[in-house]
Amino acid sequence: MSDDTTPTEPTEAEVSEQKAVRSAKRARLLEEGEAYPVSVPITDTIGAVRARHDDLAPDEKTGRIVGLAGRVVFQRNTGKLCFASLQAGDGDRIQAMVSLAEVGEESLERWKDLVDLGDHVFVEGEVIASRRGELSIMVTSWQIASKALLPLPNLHGELSEETRVRSRYLDLIVREQARVTVRARAAAVASLRRTFDAHDFLELETPMLQVQHGGAAARPFSTHSNAFDTELYLRIAPELFLKRAAVGGLERIFEINRNFRNEGADSTHSPEFAMLEAYQAYSDYNGIADLTQELIQNAATAVAGSPVVTWADGTEFDLGGHWARIGMHASLSEAAGVEITPETRIDELTALADNVGIEVAHPIAGKYVEELWEHFVKPSLSAPTFVMDFPVDTSPLVRAHRSVPGVVEKWDLYVRGFELATGYSELVDPVVQRERFVEQAALAAGGDPEAMRVDEEFLRALEHGMPPTGGMGMGIDRLLMAITGLGIRETILFPLVK
């Protein structure tokens, strides 16, 4: 039996015709008994049977009777013997053999009449190897576990990317990589939690509905609360609430949850995404960079067995070793061929940007520096690299650099050419933080939709004293991109689509 072909979608006409036929079968099943039983008497999983008996010789019998269930993904009916490939949710498969000699004429004919591709079926019988050596169940009894009314994709060709994203359930049924990605994400997130636990961090949950957005430079989604009769925002970052917790004495904390940003969607951005943020008291941006490297390398090892991962296209990518750290202004100066420092005048930055066709909305010097860096330096980065020391006017929540005027102690981690994480020596001086917020409010008043507002409640918390702290944020979806080599819509189980 061969079922190694690749899936494609049936036409609308085929779907309509098959649904009518299958609906009639459902009606018959309901008349005779049950098309959707509440349970079936499973004794084993397909994976467990394969693990125990995968080395049987052709025609070998075990004498072991099992009851298992799976989705029919291939079938071939002959006169006195029917073959079906049953697939478990994790992709494990086993052959079911329904023979006249074992089940009788009536049961065999019912199988031929009622069972379609996509149906979940329960089978009971002996574990054997077929004449060709394929691990099989010689069925003695069977029943429908769930009747499918719509067909699976045809077993030839590939699912379109649109179908994979919009109908992820089909993607999971027919494509191994989709199942692998889901399990990789689960393994990576579990690893993050283990690493934090090893460092005595607490996992917290902070509000996703907020009366004031903050914690990042991003446009928020807004909504209305009927209960409170007030406008609310979906959070763009958990930062300001996690810092409140740090003020309260929770010195090692993290959160993994959803963030929402009302911005563009592309191969590295999604309006809704999973975010990790962590804060460690009495650390700084260097210490939190070390922790971030450990988190990512442990997650890669949990998924791939080592920090050297293999992407979906077969490319090997090394996340191991000690990652490079480069200065933003120094690397920009080298790449652009002109010295650029925190003191470089905005007219000089504007001229350089004009020369390379860069436009900056709501221009300030720091935004020009960052846009120029992305133009000149970012395309050359592939190996994991911490880009250190950002302009002060684009980083309102970050402590000023301890020895270099005009920059703050912030890094962005680039992997595969995209930003994976960011880290700070956190700004804990409430007076300076207020000044930064006021500057941001002026930008917002000037029309910058990403600028922050003055958050009086957060400032009040800071005035009670927050310890020196290192903080970091990382997109979980992007972590999976780094480990798997996939685009962001492939790493999110159900991405937002129109």
TrEMBL record:
Binds 3 Mg(2+) ions per subunit. SUPFAM superfamilies: Class II aaRS and biotin synthetases, Nucleic acid-binding proteins. GO terms for cellular component: cytosol. Its cofactor is Mg(2+). Keywords: Aminoacyl-tRNA synthetase, ATP-binding, Cytoplasm, Ligase, Magnesium, Metal-binding, Nucleotide-binding, Protein biosynthesis. Residues 190-495 form the Aminoacyl-transfer RNA synthetases class-II family profile domain. One of its GO terms (biological process) is lysyl-tRNA aminoacylation. Homodimer. Belongs to the class-II aminoacyl-tRNA synthetase family. This is Lysine--tRNA ligase. It comes from Naasia lichenicola. The lineage of its organism: Bacteria, Bacillati, Actinomycetota, Actinomycetes, Micrococcales.
